[in-house]
Batch of 2 targets.
Target 1
Amino acid sequence: MHNPQLNKNGELQHLITIEGLPGAVVTRILDTASSFVGVGDRDVKKVPLMRGKSVFNLFFENSTRTRTTFEIAAKRLSADVINLNISASSASKGESLLDTIDNLAAMHADMFVVRHAQSGAPYLIAKHLIETGQSHVHVVNAGDGRHAHPTQGLLDMYTIRHYKKDFTNLTVAVVGDILHSRVARSDIHGLTTLGVPEVRAIGPRTLLPSGLEQMGVRVFTDMNEGLKGVDVIIMLRLQNERMTGALLPSAQEYFKSYGLTPERLALAKPDAIVMHPGPMNRGVEIDSAVADGAQAVILPQVTFGIAVRMAVMSMLAGT
Amino acid sequence: MTLPELDAEALYQTLEAQVKQELTGMQRLAIVGIYSGGAWLAERLAQSLQIKEIGFLDVSFYRDDYAKRGLHADVKPSHIPFEIEGATILLVDDVLYTGRTTRAAINTLFDYGRPARIMLAALLDRGGRQLPVAADFVAKKIKLEANQSLILKKADDGRLTLTVDHA
């Protein structure tokens, strides 16, 4: 089946999900990002690639951090950025999603960065643009429901490659609320696409989706067992709202079983790195001593995230 | 085809001699090679002139054909590990043609700082300029058809060769 993210020349046209992307495309994004990393260290932190282009940040769901990194990435590419907090505007007046898109496209948008609580919304927008002959407008998924958060997945892959060089001899553990996590899904697709031989998912049974084994993932409910000998630990944020349902007893209980403490970290390889997509809940999924420790690469992830988003945007806008 | 008169090694020696004669002992001289051919030449020039300040540029982010052709597939990280402000930069490229790459390279450099002076060295000048750009040092001028392109290659032992490709 043709991947709707790619044009007929196999170039990335929209970024909706890492799932199904050829490994060569993923690697090219990471390679391109490595050229953008140095731009942030220069006197002038901008390159002129997207001068005159308009990037619309469409956040139907709040996220200060992701919106900010996309905004910085677009501005460092010299694009004009328009931030729209849709939950507070047209949607509340009853305008449909695609009507909103058509209106913004009529304002000569070149790119939509879309965050939406509904899985599939960015795909729907991309499909609509293709079907209405507006395929010069590109869509980047900035997180949709439980489905995907591809730029977070890519920046995680970038971070792993930066510290570990090669994917083909790694054991990577993703820990926490896998069930509700679009980051976990994007990470797992990224890791398997890039040839990581062992991906582990660690979490309480209530927060592990079915079908993980079919994705080639080893499942652990005992964190101490799952962390043994791993090279990379990706912690997931425990969303507070999960605590109110029947899925988890309490934050303290969760930390006791699945919090990453220095003692647990010692079970991993001595040079293991600790990642977290942020925002962190210290004392819930991660101990402060680990979050601020020598093995944490959580802040470099943020820096790399800008370069990865610059790479994605400049590759899309050039097709 | 390989033109016998395009002996890359001999051309390099010519270029090196010119550069040495003009620039030996110059204060705050830095050498910057444009990927990929220019980078190989820059490395050799820096070694032979004993210049420690050497950098490499990929001009993909500054090219004027991005809107037409998109981002180049093989972008390399630019690396300028010295202070550009006030330096004299010898920019090195393998082939000078339209001048667009040189324009992009100059713009890239200026985003690192304000150099005192930029000079240009190229192994070959094939004419066909589309911008007011000229080289300070060039080993040879040749004429080529628009559908021909020159490719500089580096063998494992470091030897350079030039070939002409037909589109």
Target 2
Amino acid sequence: MPIIEVKQLSKTYRVYKKREGLLESVRGLFHRQYRDVPAIRGIDLTVEQGEFVAFLGPNGAGKTTTLKVLSGVIHPSGGDVRVMGYVPWERSNEYRRRFALVMGQKNQLWWDLPAQESYRLHQQIYAIQASEFQRSLAELTDLLGVRDLLGQPVRELSLGERMKMELIAALLHSPDVLFLDEPTIGLDVIAQHRIQQFLRYYQEKRQITILLTSHYMKDIAALCRRVVIIASGQIKYDGSLSGIIDNFSSSKIVTLELAGGEQPTDLETIGQVLDTNWPKARLRVQRTDVPTRLSAALARYRLTDVAVEDPPLEEVIADLFAQVDDRASTAEGLS
Amino acid sequence: MNRALHFARETTLADRIRTWWVILRISLEERLVYRGDFALGTLMRFLPIITQIFLWGAIFQSAIGHDAGSAGAQNPSAVPQTATSQIALGGYRFDDMVAYYLMTMIARAFSSMPGLSSGIASQIRQGEIKRYLIQPVDFIGFLLLQRLAHKVAYYSVALLPFALVFFLCRNYFVDGWPEPGRLIAFVASLMIGFLIGFFLEATIGMIGFWFLEVSSLLFIYMLGSFFLSGHMFPLTLLPDWIEWLVQMLPLKYLAYFPAAVFLGKIPADELPQEMLIQAAWLGFFIILCRFTYAAGIRRYSGFGG
């Protein structure tokens, strides 16, 4: 049985339409106008136990909204959701003891107290047995290297240390499902790397199910075998990370290394010139044209080296998001 | 199996009480971080008592009329005890007035909830309320324990200045200590007053689910409470029809009622009934608070947090 089942999930926010000007604002006090903003439009998703899934998408795509529905914070407008057999927004205590949500920008630890005090509270709230609690806490603090910081008030910790403490708080009750919303936002490279390593180790060892949203491709490349791309409230792609390039990139990057100080000016006939760093030149070529263009180049120039690569993943995804954005704004312009 | 285990644990009362205790203890620790701040605040609170003594002295002076002499008017605190103790306003003599004011300070120390409403509203606005939807913990129960800890922390610091001021003013309590029965009623009315204050102000804070800002509403409440709770003067001073109306309101349990019980201004035969009405108001506010929270959460999760 899949651990997360989402069928035709939709969520429409009703937002108060504030009009400009004082007079209109006063009028708005008595007669409010609302605008429906669809955040999710018909998402289907099935996640098996032990999967580590990344949600990828531009801002406002519906990633966080989906996580909010799954963690029971909001009601969907339509569709059906089951997580471990529970309906999340019924918020039964049994369900709430079996998952955790970590939001990178939200703090759930007591600001003025050492983190261990917050953990004691978690122990009670989640009814964790004392021996189990001690064992988990020791394991998690060792893995993240924060044992010495347990007694320090949270406000005195750095952002990275705080995030590690947040993760510990979320994992103390050994949740079966973990939702992570931008867990590495604002962290430096070292802290990001440490958290990635930790998540990978912990997930592999415990075989828990994790859904993660992130803007950092490095997070996703390091952690998730499965990527779900959400844009404009719909799933655009669901598959492996490398599959994104095959699906969405129509071009390849061809690098030519010319011999004998040659600097031809007619490279445009081979492909779009991205940059030149003589004797090297990088060109973008349509994927289907690569064989013919390449043989043309070999015939025309004296070359010492040739390389054909996929464009960087970030670029492909950025292009994909831009396309979706364009389409969305055209659609809105028409309506 | 896992699920059954969780369920079984949840039902034991001992575990729940341990949870409450931990919340209380941690909240207390957190409050004590700021103890210096409220030690000073507590002392400042007693400054108005001096104004009050002078003010009531002047009022009673003018009530006595001209024969008390102009010397007294210049220095109202020097009003001869014999002259002022004859007169009573709304059933309170001059000494009673000062004693009443001191007692309402105790009552207010129990029933006032600084920062509760605005804190709830800001938790809603900033989305921190999510935490209570995600974690298996009751928001209102959590707030109540937190508030209890605030109060305990406050008294641990405020006890000394309170004792000092009451010792200095002991002569205003002309009737001495109340008999044990009244003392118990007084303590009970303070406890219920604390709970009424809590659930009332928590409800106001939860209006934040509908309106982003509750500060103006809170201001109106504070203003109303200031006059209608009897914080400034005994409600019996009000014109009859206004007094009748104000006595019907629950605000009097926040200040007037406990003070009046202590000073023996509530007739013994009316006391049990009054206590019952106070308890009924508490029941009303508990239900109102729970209802508002449930409705607010429905709206919050419907609209999208």
